Amino acid sequence: MKAAAFSSPGTPDVLQTMEFDDPHAGAGQVRVRVKAAGVQPFDLALRSGWSPPPGITVQLPQIPGNEFAGVVDQVGEGVTGFAIGSEVISYKMLTCYAEYVTVDANQIVVKPQSMPWEVAGGLSGAGQAAYTGLKEIGAGRGDTVLIHAAAGAVGTIAVQLARAWGATVIGTASERNHDYLRSLGAIPVAYGEGLADRVRALAPHGIDAVLDGAGGDALRVSVEWVRNRERIGTLVGFDLAEELGIRPIRSQRSAARLAELADLYEQGKLRLHIRSTFPLHQAADAHREVETGHGRGKVVLTFD
Question: pLDDT tens digit string along 54-81?
């Protein structure tokens, strides 16, 4: 099979299309012919030489990728509920930038017929991170929630989930994305100098919780608005989280949560903007696109 992989860490140029042996489904697994795979900041960090947390082993040449969607083409012993030809969404730690992925059957869910492949391939990472983050900061009915990097892939879903759960949402983003945030139900606010004053003007009674996908200065000023720092969570600024005494958030993934997100999409209550798609052989270009930062929505690899 073909896959995008790197033999040594470095710039996006180290990502090359390589040939690997086809994997085969073991007991309790399925093999999926991949139609789309999302590109995440985690993938970029790994490719750049970042050392992942304990339990994640990099074996060079390494195929990155943590989310995908495709068609089941092999079913292992003991698997029920899925068959050859089932269209599915899934997640796996690494190896998803490939034509075939084997995965435990308890990590796949049925793809809604109405969901395009590129959305399915990019749903798990952003969706489960947004869901986890909002639950950890206790966002819910009656809250005013501030979401940093609200126009990104995680932010896009976090805004919609928080609104669906009854919260008022203020979202930071560049001005070119303000109409987009309004379309999702958020009140937009610009980054940069004067952010604290702009947020106070929009929320004179205060902010109840913050979900951060930007880090840096935006996270530093967040502690001015929320009394309980346990209700400030960051998905990116872990070193700063320790310094400020706020909550570092690491996404917790499950098929049940992914199925809930897929159901919300099917009901018309959730959407994911796809910023751009790239064929597998242009995986390096996909990484460059994500590295530009502050882009709207998701970048996805597509497969023939």
Answer: 889 999 999 999 999 999 999 999 999 9
